[in-house]
Amino acid sequence: MESTYVKIQLFSFSLDALPRVTCPNHPDAILVEDYRAGDMICPECGLVVGDRVIDVGSEWRTFSNDKATKDPSRVGDSQNPLLSDGDLSTMIGKGTGAASFDEFGNSKYQNRRTMSSSDRAMMNAFKEITTMADRINLPRNIVDRTNNLFKQVYEQKSLKGRANDAIASACLYIACRQEGVPRTFKEICAVSRISKKEIGRCFKLILKALETSVDLITTGDFMSRFCSNLCLPKQVQMAATHIARKAVELDLVPGRSPISVAAAAIYMASQASAEKRTQKEIGDIAGVADVTIRQSYRLIYPRAPDLFPTDFKFDTPVDKLPQL
Amino acid sequence: MDADSDVALDILITNVVCVFRTRCHLNLRKIALEGANVIYKRDVGKVLMKLRKPRITATIWSSGKIICTGATSEEEAKFGARRLARSLQKLGFQVIFTDFKVVNVLAVCNMPFEIRLPEFTKNNRPHASYEPELHPAVCYRIKSLRATLQIFSTGSITVTGILLYRYQTCQLWIE
């Protein structure tokens, strides 16, 4: 895919009295432009009339399989001005050669001039969001959504007093929820310096400020993540999903957080299969306390035979499941 | 749907919070030394005084503002506040009992049935907010009465607000 780039060639001008060139033999003829050679040719007699005209073709060609980072036809940074408005300033980059450092080891021409000082905090927050998302390997679309949310909240200024990091963490949480892949508060807490309480407070405030609401979390949202972290095979994961869903449908666990129910279901499924996991391991991954899993497990244990999927292969039969 | 509007739901007021002013500056140190049943919190700058007769805990600031909590009804709150002002008067301060205002009333109520929180939240979208990770109850805000209800899955409900005419609770439940 070619991109346009204007190339200005040096050429000497002879100022014509006429603004347009015409063929001397055929003054009425409309000249044809040959852009490859840079000529204006008379179609009647083939005389090359104009010479060295400006070539508006591109200088470099970029193809779609080339590295996206290196595009010689572009000037300027490829930041999207949708998020941080007014991105047309020049920064002084770090020096590369030896000459760019003065006698103390400091770089000459230091301080990249503060650009967009009005949104300095926002740029900082975006950087923080990217760092946080990177720690838990979140895809780019969630990060973009988070950035958008943060921008909306920031412009509204209703949460101006709160720490930017807290708002950023809460935006990250909301973005994950909105994309259908919720992360628990504890997981966001693990990559952020803000306490769970503060993130929760900011979360509620942001929902009120932006007047949106989010869907409730279900047990199935977390199954694939927890199970793969525990290296459980696919059948166990499907069994655990089934157990948790059934438990919620039958309302065996009223008032229990879906995370706790999911953890208990994983425990039951793993104990019934060949790959057994202890409560402590599951609690570590899910961020749920040991005793909480025990409590939820006690609630679902009586109905264990009904909860398992029909085609499940039991390594440990249902009546031999551990009873806590 | 249990149309239990005939069944009288007992709704108990558990706490009434009120504020009043004594129009004079109070010397906290003197109250702390001479008053009975007081706790002086010097780092924050207030004195806690607990009364036995209406079971009340009052937070006294040196500016003369007093917050009174723990009363079981509004009249009791007023009695307790007056009694408190009287005890401060006995200590020698020129107390004038002004600006008595009930700030918050907390009541609990028990439904005879359990409540399924996720369905309830879905049906009452704008008012109800449920966040299982943060708090095990649904927070239902009623703007017209400026009241907040915390609904637990066991059926017990905590009502917080200023006006307490919440007897139309029954009509809201969808179970």
Automatic annotation (TrEMBL), chain A:
Swiss-Prot/TrEMBL catalytic activity: L-lysyl-[protein] + acetyl-CoA = N(6)-acetyl-L-lysyl-[protein] + CoA + H(+)
Q: What class of enzyme is it?
A: transferase
List where in the cell it is found.
Chromosome; Nucleus
Gene Ontology MF term list:
promoter-specific chromatin binding; protein-lysine-acetyltransferase activity; RNA polymerase II core promoter sequence-specific DNA binding; RNA polymerase II general transcription initiation factor activity; TBP-class protein binding; zinc ion binding
The alphabetical list of record keywords is:
Acyltransferase, Chromosome, DNA-binding, Metal-binding, Nucleus, Repeat, Transcription, Transcription regulation, Transferase, Zinc, Zinc-finger
Q: Which domain of life is it from?
A: Eukaryota
One Gene Ontology cellular component term attached to this UniProt record is: transcription preinitiation complex
Stretches assigned to the TFIIB-type domain: 19-50
Q: Which GO terms describe its biological process?
A: RNA polymerase II core complex assembly; RNA polymerase II preinitiation complex assembly; transcriptional start site selection at RNA polymerase II promoter
Q: Which Gene3D superfamilies does this chain map to?
A: 2.20.25.10, Cyclin-like
Instruction: Check the record and name the SUPFAM superfamilies matching this protein.
Output: Cyclin-like, Zinc beta-ribbon
> What coarse category fits the chief subcellular location reported for this protein?
nucleus
One Pfam family, short name: Zn_Ribbon_TF
EC numbers on record: 2.3.1.48
Role noted for this protein: General transcription factor that plays a role in transcription initiation by RNA polymerase II (Pol II). Involved in the pre-initiation complex (PIC) formation and Pol II recruitment at promoter DNA. Together with the TATA box-bound TBP forms the core initiation complex and provides a bridge between TBP and the Pol II-TFIIF complex. Released from the PIC early following the onset of transcription during the initiation and elongation transition and reassociates with TBP during the next transcription cycle. Associates with chromatin to core promoter-specific regions.
In the record, the note on similarity to other proteins reads: Belongs to the TFIIB family.
PANTHER family referenced in this protein's UniProt entry, alphabetically: TRANSCRIPTION INITIATION FACTOR IIB, TRANSCRIPTION INITIATION FACTOR IIB-RELATED
Q: What is this protein called?
A: Transcription initiation factor IIB
Q: What species was this sequence derived from? A: Callithrix jacchus
Q: Which gene encodes it?
A: GTF2B
UniProtKB/TrEMBL annotation, chain B:
| Subcellular localization(s) per the UniProt record | Cytoplasm; Nucleus
- What gene makes this protein? TBPL1
Per the UniProt record, the source organism is Callithrix jacchus
Q: Which SUPFAM superfamilies match?
A: TATA-box binding protein-like (SSF55945)
Q: State what this protein does.
A: Part of a specialized transcription system that mediates the transcription of most ribosomal proteins through the 5'-TCT-3' motif which is a core promoter element at these genes. Seems to also mediate the transcription of NF1. Does not bind the TATA box.
Identify a single GO molecular function assigned to this protein.
Answer: DNA binding
Q: How does the annotation summarize its subunit structure?
A: Binds TFIIA and TFIIB.
- PANTHER family hit by this protein: TATA-BOX BINDING PROTEIN
Is the Repeat keyword given for this protein? no
Which keywords does this chain's UniProt record carry?
Cytoplasm, DNA-binding, Nucleus, Transcription, Transcription regulation
Q: Which Gene3D superfamilies match?
A: TATA-Binding Protein
A Pfam family reported for this protein in Swiss-Prot or TrEMBL: TBP
Q: Which family does this protein fall into?
A: Belongs to the TBP family.
Asked if the record carries the keyword Cytoplasm, the reply is yes
List the GO cellular component terms. Answer: cytoplasm; nucleus
Q: Which protein are we looking at?
A: TATA box-binding protein-like 1
Q: Name one GO biological process term.
A: DNA-templated transcription initiation
